[in-house]
Amino acid sequence: MSKVEVGPNEPLEKALRRFKKKIEREGILKVLKARKHYEKPSEIKRRKARASKSRKKF
Fold this sequence. Notes:
By secondary structure, this protein is mainly α. The protein contains 3 helices and no strands. The longest helix is centred in the last third of the chain and has 16 residues.
């Protein structure tokens, strides 16, 4: 679970922006979007193959 401490006299918008960045870095948004709709097993394999292929380039 992600937490962001809000300091005294700190604007809520600034803390919310930090929270969004933290969630994005942890990859939580990507997981949520992936779980939003059903993904066929063949699509999962294809996505994983593309991800590993792009990692192997470097």
